[in-house]
Amino acid sequence: MLNPGINLESSRAAVQLAVRCQPVYAAVGIHPNEHVQLGRETLRELRALAAEPAVVAIGEIGLDYYHHMTPPGEQQRRFRAQLDLAAELELPVIIHCRNAHADALGIISAWQASGGAKVNAGVFHSFGGDAVHAETARELGFYLGITGPVTFPTADGLRKIVAHMPEDRLLIETDAPFLAPQPRRGKRNEPAHVRWVAEKIAAVRAAKTEAIAQASTENANRLFAWDD
Ligand SMILES: [Zn+2]
Question: Whole-prediction pTM value?
Answer without folding.
Answer: 0.95
